[in-house]
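## retry 2 of 3
previous attempt timed out at serialization; input unchanged, resubmitting
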Amino acid sequence: MKKKAFTIPEILIFMTIVGVICVMMITIIRPNDKYYKYGYYNAYYVLATAGYNILEDAMDKKNSGSVDTYPVEDIAFPKEAKDLCKKLALNPDTSLSGPDEDYGYINTTTYNCKTQFIAKKNPTDSDFAKGKESFKSTNSMRFFIGAKDNTGAPFNIEVPDAVNGGSVKIFFYLIWVDLNGDRGPNTAKIANNGRLPDIVPFAMTTTGKLMPLGYPTVDKTYMVSRIKYPTDAKTDYSTVDNYYVSQMKAYGNKEYPSIDVMSIRSSWNTFTTGTDLKVSSKYVPKETAQDTHCVPGSETDPSPCYVVIEEMKAF
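## retry succeeded, writing output
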């Protein structure tokens, strides 16, 4: 008995159909858009963890009673961007040793921490050219650790405090991350055709807190967030939304910088005015009312809620 098999014309027709479907899927689902969400969370997670560890390690050494045995840069959060770079990046040159080389929470392949990168609020694509990064991680992401000027000092903003009254000055460094490394488009600007930038900004405070900035705060292509409700609520978390809306629902129009830096939505908006860090108003979601679970009991009480960046699982 002869076994049935596909003829060559049938195989060619099948392959043609599969090819057409693949092209259509590539057109509909842009690979970069899918990657941005995982790449962004990865960048956020490693930076947030590193910032926390830097501060905790400094506090441990400061409280150890042996301050004299540690370099001054080990018992405080870095006072210059290039020192923060050294704390974040692990120098891949294992032949070097000494206090400037014994740090690093992020594995790297390229290390330029001795070069001061100035974090412009209105960077051009040339500012992110290959070789200008502070360091490149082993997953090919490029990191630009930025200071306010050539002194290496951090930026600062004055933030009103709804709980304690008055204001709090927050010091921070701008950190730009190229999510897909040397691959294009290597820009921090949104394109005319709506294509999202692959270079995204963060702010790392000198208390080790990492803050999302720019388009990732309004576009769920990069990240999503939830509100953590108080313990007496019937549910633990809100539904998923973008970061900007979650901030509004959690904190309303008030800011609580001494309790939760993620509450300072309005102050960040003021800081970014007139710069490329500012998200165009046509992309900003319409503000919604504060979530009823999050309304504080009095004018001086903090919001009982806070914002959580949703973890993105691997493919």
